[in-house]
Amino acid sequence: MNPKNNDVNVFGATLSRRGFVRTGVKAGGALMVGFGMVGIDGLKNSAKAAPTRNSLDATLPESWIEIHPDNTILIRTGKSDFGQSTTFTAYRQIVAEELNAPFEAITTVVMGDTDRTPDGSGAFDFLGSGTPNIRKAAAYTYQALLDLASQRLGVPKSELSVKEGVVSGGGKSMSYGDLVKGQQLKLTIPVKGDLTSVMGLSVDGNPPMKPVAQYTVIGKPFQNSVTASKVAAKETWATDVRLPEMLHARMVHPKSLGSTLVSVGALDKTKFPNSQVIVKGNLVGVVAPTEWEAIRAAQQVAGATKWKDWKGLPGRARLFDYLKRDADWKTTKVTKSDKSKGDLAPAIAGAAKKINATYQLPYMKHAPIGPTVALADARKDGTVYIYTHNQNPQALRGEIAQMLSTALDNVVVRTFAGPGHYGRSNGGNAGAEDEAVILSKAVGKPVRVQWMRPEDFQWSTQSPAAMSDVEIGLDAKGKMVAYQIDHYMPAMQDDRPIGAVLAGLPTMPAPSEKGVFIGSTVNDISDPWIYDGVATLMERGHGTFQVGQKASPLAVGLRDHSMRTPGQFQQNFPRELAVSEAAALAGADSIQFRLDHAKEERVIGVLKAVRDASGWETRSSRANAAGGAQLRGQGVSVMFRSGTYWACVSQIAVTPSTGVIKVEKVTVAVDPGIVVNPLQLKRQVEGGTVMGVSIALLEELQFDESGITSRDWQTYPILKMADVPEIKVVLLNRPEVGSYGGGSEAANALAAPAIAAALFDATGKIARRLPLKAEYVQALLKV
Amino acid sequence: MAMIVVNGVRREVQAPTDTPLLYVLRNDLELTGPQFGCGLAQCGSCSVLLDGKEIRSCITALSAAVGKEVTTLEGLPGRWAQQKGLPQAEAAKTLHPVQQAWIEEQTPLCGFCQNGMMIKATELLERVATPSVAEIKEAFTTSGPSAHLCRCGSYTAIIQAVQRAAMVMGGSR
Q1: What is the DSSP string of A368-429?
Q2: Do A107 and A189 lie in a common domain?
Q3: Which of A11, A516, A676, A720 is the most buried (most CB within 10 A)?
């Protein structure tokens, strides 16, 4: 083969032989023989590494996977693990599988840093509907390795086999480490997309994948490699990063979500001699050499700072009146699901029994257990380095470049472990990052912005409130013949960095009817319909602007952001609770009723699995409000999300005199197709279930006409250990499906509709809004 | 200036004595196990042991720690080694059974709250050798200034890890 001109098209990728090379790209001529080495990883070596501030070239295989002469393997992903464990377990399993290498050979995972990874995108859909970028990159690399081995061993590619990272054929064998020593392949991986968009780049083409029947690594339990360092206090968290000459900062945020600055309070220099107040537009921050001085100085300045009053929100009490009567649902295009079919009006009119009801879901907070924090280093040469915990570092990079009106190449984002925030920064920012950049630029030193707990509730985004109108028609036999649902929800994804908005610096536009994709006010149907036996169906989505945003002189208002199972939770709760109501109206068992309307075999499978595992009593709804000190009930919910089928049964006890619901047991059946890592999937489902119970019973953003009044864990309570139910997780491993679905989202969305249905089963009273707080339930049961 | 004993070592601290212990530990002594979660003693992310009792370092002034023994997450292995009289070579490579159980049970999801969870578990297991599930729930919910909160929902895994640690600690007594 001519090493210079032998491009071969391999499954959409361009494979070319680049001949022998002696060194990698490491500067200084150090001998680093191996296959595709780029740069040097690890924060400690950062000064020496990164010849460019750009991301790695996603078309080069070595940007994704490095195979070293000692047989160790390094992988890189732009995705940033937030506690899902996926990059540290599933990604290693997937790469090991596609390369036919041992799991343990993958010793290093580089993730998230914008100058050390190739592809961007957010911390969601890690498994990419079965083919995440890293899987395709591994599959392409495997073909390139076989090609190389064929040449080195002089054996046709078709006669080679690989096991545990050793290639064999024609009576000869060679480990990957030996194979790649002194070699470099130029394999051009096809990619498409926009690096700094929410979705990042994606690997294109269709490389051959390993047949599922030959899997040896996927399906086995593996420990999360980052757990040990976190537990032993050896992990570097975003909260731990410090730079020389760094200043601590605390923000002085406006008095309300629409208050402009009147005057900044004078800093008491006698008490805080080393502090400094920074003002840019309506952005006020205080910096000091020590954290405690920054905190106290900011408090002092805040107390003396004057803001205009503003009352432009409906307030929590009037929220649903506002959404129903005042909100603009006309400007934004109404969406309709693909499965909508038939003529609803006559079907409903002709129904023997009907349900017509409205369901309401409150604003909720992502509520990370630690408030947002970021360290920014705006350097004299115009470059900016940001050290933070972020779900979409490339998108953040784009937003900061836009804010500073500078080239993307001037911005680098490095990510570290931090408190999960469940979607809040998957569009690029969690809150503190841009503020740190603005302050660092102003003082010419690295600045660390740490939000305090009240700010993290009051100035971050929220999961939007929603309401749905449902109409169901049953025939004389109790079968659903017509189902109509209209979902109403304000725009769900405002990715404008808040500091940039307050400072009057450039940002993307707020969500509007003209926006594209997630920048739009359009409310898509996110909850795939699974009751295919229903003859007529209409599912519509109605969108509007964020509440208060247009009225706010700051253009702020109640900013929203996608939160774990975004949009789909808001649509699945009303659907599933309404179906439980329909089952009761039909006098049917709630699981059997669902089975009778489902046609997909996997829907039926999860329903039967959850019925068997939960101790479900097959019967019609007891709907028994006859009293007693404590009533028990059962409820079920079903969902299809990201390639995975879910069913959940909740069993509860409710005390009518107090309205207190005790969730006694939650059983979740999960069919993701192939279970990649049963150990980690089980923990994810347990965790999501706890969040789901918390959402069902407790969570609701408090706000008045000026702003958010939830400010701490007392005004935004979440579930405590004492209230955790028994949780049973049933994993249905179905290799025959041939791909793996997601396993972290959805888990949090299942409990609420099942618990509300269980309350209905126990008492005969239907709670069509969340949360099911004691006073609400108590009042409901008195009626 | 103040003198405190942290993880068995006397440390001199220049910070004003009204500084919350959390900032002293994280910024002055570079002990970053305890995390800032709320600054209000409402979540438990910042917990440390003060003379063996779990406290919230975010609202405890440096002055309150003077003359007392502070143990952070970093100090748990040493605390265990001392309690068991482990030889130095063995101590250096031994985690506290609570930490080991947290790994074996794969308890953390994001892990941010787990500092406080492990501190609380250590306090509990030093007091009650084999706690029941009810006792574990009581310890993590009502025994301190507030419940220990986990947003990722790792409570079930925490209960299992405490039980595992109890077996190891009880078994080696």
Answers
A1: -SS--EEEEEE-TTS-EEEEE--S-HHHHHHHHHHHHT--GGGEEEEE-B----TTTTTTS-
A2: yes
A3: A676
CA of B141, closest CA in chain A: separation in Å?
6
Best probe of the A interface among B109, B113, B136, B137, by most A CBs < 10 A, is: B109
Q: Do A303 and A225 share a structural domain?
A: no
Q: What is the residue range of A409's domain?
A: 238-310+372-450
Both tokens assigned to A735: 């290799």
**CATH label of the domain that carries residue A249:** 3.30.365.10
What is the total count of domains within chain A?
3
Domain closes at, from A203, A231, A259: A231
Q: Which residues of A touch B41 (CB under 8 A)?
A: none
Domain contains A359: no
Judge whether A388 lies within some domain. yes
CB contact under 8 A, B138 and A722: yes
Per-residue confidence (pLDDT) for residue A292, from 0 to 100: 98
Domains of chain B: 2-74 (3.10.20.30), 76-171 (1.10.150.120)
Q: How far apart are CA A34 and CA A68, in angstroms?
A: 5
Long-range contacts of B93-96 (CB under 8 A, 24+ apart): B95/A231, B95/A232, B96/B122
Which of A201, A231, A261 delimits the end of a domain? A231
Q: DSSP of A137-167, one letter per residue?
A: HHHHHHHHHHHHHHHHHT--GGG-EEETTEE
Contact A721 B159 (CB under 8 A): yes
The CA distance from A367 to A356, in Å, is 34
Does A770 map to a domain?
yes
My answer on whether A187 and A275 are in the same domain is: no
- In chain A, the residue whose alpha carbon lies closest to the alpha carbon of B28 is A290
Is there a contact between A370 and B72 if contact means CB atoms under 8 Å apart?
Answer: no
Among all chains, which residue has been given the structure tokens 């006859």? A626
DSSP A286-303: EEESSHHHHHHHHHHHHH
- Tell me: do A757 and A726 sit in the same domain: yes
CB contact under 8 A, B151 and A420: yes
How close A421 comes to chain B (CA, Å)? 9
Arithmetic mean of pLDDT over chain A: 92
Is residue A85 domain-shared with residue A180, that is, in the same domain? yes
Put simply, the chain B residues between 41 and 60 with a CB less than 8 A from any chain A CB are 42-43, 45
Chain A residues touching residue B77 (CB < 8 angstroms): 232
Domain membership of residue A669 (yes or no) is: yes
Q: Which residues 56-115 on chain B approach chain A with CB closer than 8 angstroms?
A: 72-74, 77, 95, 99, 102-103, 106-115
- Put simply, whether B161 touches A (Cβ < 8 Å) is no
Indicate the pLDDT class of residue B170, thresholds 50, 70 and 90: confident
List, for residues A734-781, the tens digit of each pLDDT value: 999 999 999 989 999 999 999 999 999 999 999 999 999 999 999 999
Residues A769 and A724 in one domain: yes
Q: Taking CB atoms and an 8 Å cutoff, what residues of chain A touch B99?
A: 231-232
Give rounded-to-5 percent helix, strand, coil for chain B. Answer: 45, 15, 40
Closest residue of chain A to B104, computed from CA coordinates: A223
- B14 has a chain A CB within 8 A of its CB: no
Quick one: A248 and A118 in the same domain? no
A594 sits in which H/E element: helix A590-597
Same-domain check for residues A215 and A294: no
Examine the pLDDT at A38 and tell me if it is beyond 90.
no
- Chain A closest CA to B21's CA: distance in Å? 10
Residue among A454, A433, A453, A437 at smallest CA distance from A445: A437
Q: What residues of chain B lie within 8 A of the CB of A292, using their CB?
A: 15-16, 18-20, 23
Q: What is the pLDDT of residues A208-220, one digit of tens each?
A: 999 999 999 999 9
CB-based contact B110 A237, cutoff 8 Å: no
Residue of B nearest to A247 (CA): B27
